DNA sequence: GTCACCTTAGAAG
DNA sequence: CTTCTAAGGTGAC
């Protein structure tokens, strides 16, 4: 890929870009930040620098509980059709609003695929910008969160959800 | 083929 | 209220 550091008040995120756009985003590694000398990179997207700036700007706003605004192109080609429809729907959820897994399932035309939705959210490669944290369990329960439940709580709190 | 997963509605005890 | 079950999509084994 193409790891790029994105500085935010919450730490340094790492973004990955393909020639098509943003393909992944990682939360700050709290324990060991010691990671990569960055293996040799081959592809350098033509708009890399521009995308990095857009990603940082969008991330800062999203972390502050605001609409991310202009986003760099997202390359979600790694996901299945089902996952992409879920992720697309999540991006349409405004800050401060939340949906339950069942509502998301219904919204994409698969009312019985509630668990699959959970699976799709967990497989989301771009947390925060693709707000998987705005999906709660049916009775207001938080449900789980692979990136760490604390992020889910922190983000929702800032959005006053 | 089987199992586990960021789930949930419904039926039974 | 608690416990159990079935059901959807997907990837690991």
Walk me through what this model shows.
- By secondary structure, this protein is α+β, with helices and mostly antiparallel strands.
- The chain contains five helices and five strands.
- It has helices spanning 48-63, 81-91, 101-107, 114-122, 149-158, and strands at residues 3-8, 11-17, 22-26, 99-100, 135-136.
- It has a three-stranded antiparallel beta sheet, with helices on one face.
- α3 (101-107) packs across α4 (114-122).
- The termini are far apart.
- The mean pLDDT is 91.
- The protein binds a DNA duplex (13 and 13 nucleotides) through residues 80, 82-83, 100-102, 105, 110, 112-123, 132, 135-139, 141-146, 149, 152.
Brief summary:
The chain is of the alpha+beta class and 161 residues long. 33% of the residues lie in helices and 14% in strands. It is built from five helices and five strands; from the N terminus they run E-E-E-H-H-E-H-H-E-H.
Count every beta strand, where a strand is a DSSP E run of 2 or more residues. Answer: 5
Q: Biggest sheet, strands in spatial order?
A: 1-2-3
Helical content, roughly? 25-40%
Cα-atom Rg, whole angstroms?
16 Å
- One letter per element, helices H and strands E, the order comes to EEEHHEHHEH
* Discrete helix count: 5
Q: Ranges with pLDDT <50 over ≥5 residues?
A: none
Alpha-carbon distance between the two ends: 35 Å
| Category by helix and strand content | alpha+beta
**Strand percentage:** 5-15%
Mean pLDDT, to the nearest integer, reads: 91
List keywords for this structure.
161 residues, two-stranded parallel ribbon, 5 helices, DNA-binding
């Amino acid at each position: 890929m193409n790891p790029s550091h994105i500085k935010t008040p919450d730490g340094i995120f790492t973004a990955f870009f393909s020639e098509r756009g943003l393909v992944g985003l990682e939360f700050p590694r709290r324990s060991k930040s010691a990671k990569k000398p960055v293996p040799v990179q081959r592809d350098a997207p033509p708009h890399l620098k521009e995308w990095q700036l857009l990603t940082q700007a969008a991330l800062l706003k999203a972390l502050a509980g605001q609409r991310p605004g202009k986003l760099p192109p997202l390359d979600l080609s790694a996901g299945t059709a089902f996952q992409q429809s879920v992720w697309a729907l999540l991006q349409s959820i405004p800050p401060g609003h939340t949906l339950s897994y069942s509502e998301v399932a219904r919204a994409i035309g698969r009312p019985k695929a509630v668990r699959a939705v959970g699976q799709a959210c967990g497989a989301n490669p771009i947390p925060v910008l693709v707000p998987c944290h705005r999906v709660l369990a049916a009775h207001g329960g938080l449900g789980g969160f692979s990136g760490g439940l604390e992020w889910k709580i922190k983000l929702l709190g800032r959005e006053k959800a």
